[in-house]
TrEMBL record:
Name of the featured protein: Alkaline phosphatase
Cofactor annotation: Zn(2+); Mg(2+)
Signal peptide as annotated in the record: none
Record key words, sorted: Hydrolase, Magnesium, Metal-binding, Phosphoprotein, Zinc
Family: Belongs to the alkaline phosphatase family.
Length: 366
């Protein structure tokens, strides 16, 4: 009798154990990858000097650095950088979702779709631009926007928001890819971030080319598109991978325009606030924030009052100045900030393509 009781208890315990295990492993990890194009440590630092409040960057405890060189050049570009994140392989400059031998390689979105994941892309550039493009397209050169747009049709991205309408609607080959997307169960909007349709995929192409920069009058598109994407992907109750690109930090560097850089970093930080708020409510989410490379060789230096007549430096003032080394990408290590399940994996110093492998490891370890 004692033995029967003991056995019954054991069976009960194992049922409970299996039940609990099922409970915790039931929900696969959501992943949000935020890329600040051209955002090195000096760019991040501007948020600490020029923001009104403490930057959201300050909320991270798990921080690492990546080495960004491509297979063809020490100083990478956005295409090779994004392809490394998206495919786990380093490749040559200008490559979109192809290996250093120009062969197509599966992207993280394609890999995760096999596991039942949804996917989302938010960018300020055309959705066919190098960074978003590398997550779904496979072309030899980043300038082949029309070819990249063709890949978008078959990519089954569940939610995307950005610009690039002309690469779908006003094409050299006269194909109407806008209509092609509608035929693939998309709800599309080219005017505003209208409410999504939960029964369809949703695409927002709100500019012919790129969206305006902050200095050109972009309002809250970046935060609103991010929130809309998160709401939609969450309501579908399937795990998701969402890539969010702050595209114009890079422009600030290329234009050597301190004000543009500052405003774009602050807007990125504000969007980061939206995402951090989301993961507080949805802790089953890994957030990784990084950049493809730094742009401008930016440093934060002393600031002086300049004598307008002579051009000479007068006294030093408390504010700092943003200095540019040149108008090109640079080769500095790039910070990686992580939060949520798997975040400790992102500590240390490693190659940019490791980001892909670490994300998959975090999903696997869950
Ligand atoms: Zn870039």
């Amino acid at each position: 009798m004692k033995n029967i009781l003991k056995n019954a208890l054991l069976v009960l315990l194992s049922i409970l154990y299996i039940g609990c295990k099922k409970e915790t492993s039931k929900k696969p990890l959501n992943v949000i990858l935020m890329i600040g194009d051209g955002m090195g440590l000096a760019q991040v630092s501007t948020a600490f000097y020029f923001g009104k409040n403490a930057p959201n960057f300050e909320q991270f405890k798990e921080i690492g650095f990546i080495k960004t060189q491509s297979t063809s050049h020490t100083i990478t570009d956005s295409a090779a950088g994004a392809t490394a994140f998206a495919t786990g392989q380093k490749t040559y400059k200008r490559a979109i979702g192809v290996s250093k031998d120009s062969l197509p390689i599966p992207t993280i979105i394609e890999t995760l779709q096999q596991k039942g994941y949804q996917s989302g892309l938010v960018s300020l550039t055309p959705i066919t631009h190098a960074t978003p493009g590398a997550f779904y397209a496979h072309v030899k050169d980043r300038d082949s926007h029309e070819e990249i747009a063709l890949d978008l049709i078959d990519a089954n991205i569940d939610f995307f928001a950005g610009g690039g309408l002309k690469y779908l609607k006003r094409r050299k080959d006269k194909k109407d890819l806008y209509a092609a997307l509608l035929a693939k169960n998309y709800q599309l909007d080219s005017v505003a971030l209208s409410p999504y349709n939960i029964h369809k995929r949703n695409g927002y192409l709100l500019a012919n080319d790129g969206l305006p920069s902050k200095l050109e009058g972009r309002k809250s598109f970046f935060q609103d598109a991010t929130q809309l994407g998160l709401d939609y992907l969450t309501e579908k109750e399937k795990p998701f991978f969402l890539m969010i690109e702050g595209s114009y930090i890079d422009w600030g560097g290329h234009a050597m325009d301190a004000e543009l850089l500052k405003q774009e970093v602050l807007d990125f930080d504000k969007t980061l606030g939206v995402v951090l708020n989301y993961i507080k409510k949805h802790p089953n989410t890994l957030l990784v924030v990084t950049a493809d490379h730094e742009t401008g060789g930016v440093s934060i230096g002393k600031s002086y009052v300049i004598d307008e007549a002579t051009g000479e430096k007068q006294e030093e003032v408390t504010n700092v100045s943003i200095n540019f080394n040149n108008d090109q990408h640079s080769g500095t290590l790039i910070p990686v900030f992580a939060k949520g399940p798997g975040a400790p994996l992102f500590k240390g110093i490693y190659e940019n393509n490791e980001i892909y492998h670490k994300i998959l490891k975090a999903i696997h370890n869950k």
